[in-house]
Amino acid sequence: MGGRVTRVFRTFNVESRARREISKEKPTPAPRHRTARLDATADQPEVKEEILRKDDRLLTLLKDVYVESRDPPVRVKDGGGERLPCKQEEKRLTKLGHLGALDVKKVSKGKISIVEALTLLNNHKFHPQIWTAEKIAAEYSLELKDVNSLLEFFIPFTVQEFPKETKKAIKS
Questions:
Q1: Residue 53 domain-assigned?
Q2: In whole angstroms, what is the distance from residue 24 CA to residue 44 CA?
Q3: DSSP string covering 11-57
Q4: β-pair type (106-108, 91-93)
């Protein structure tokens, strides 16, 4: 509905509005800069002759110029004392999980992979007498305080199944 109303106003008296715009006096263009009139000077034969003429004096001076370039001597950098010492991290092989190719193969000492973390938490949960914090720290090359924090604050999920309530079906 709104489109019909706007179309009526848009097409109202179109021809007379177009004639009024066409009959308006055109504005005069701005004057051009004199450098824009190069085509007028190019028509003159003296200018063309000056452009095409060779200057012998400048040509002889150009022939006398001789340029010789030399590269600066190449200096080889001595890498003796400039390198910073690189800390070599000790790596250990991980206890591989069931993911095969997706498992992490090597881990830095003092760190564990996710599979190992879940395994050690699960082992400690089911057998806390065997898998003590000291044994876990020795097994996975961890610090004892980190293992104690890990065992205290991270608990693996437990799945509990509740027995279904048995009710007699309502017979209709």
A1: no
A2: 40
A3: HTTHHHHHHHHHHSPPPPPPPPPGGGGHHHHHTSHHHHHHHH---HH
A4: antiparallel
* 57-113: pLDDT as tens digits: 988 998 888 888 888 888 776 655 556 666 666 776 666 655 566 566 777 888 888
Please state the pTM of the whole predicted model: 0.40
Number of domains in the chain: 1
Give the other-Cβ count within 10 Å of 147's Cβ: 22
Residue range(s) defining the domain that contains residue 109: 91-153
Mean pLDDT of the chain: 79
User: What is the distance between the alpha carbons of residues 107 and 113, in angstroms, rounded to a whole number?
Assistant: 7
Answer whether residue 79 is part of any domain. no
Tell me the C-alpha to C-alpha distance, in Å, between residue 112 and each of 6, 11, 150: 71, 77, 11
Q: Does position 12 have pLDDT exceeding 90, yes or no? A: no
Residues 6+ apart with CB under 8 A from 144: 133, 134, 137
Q: Is residue 20 part of a domain?
A: no
Residues 136, 138, 139, 140, Cα dihedral to 10°: 80
Q: Is pLDDT of 8 > 90?
A: no
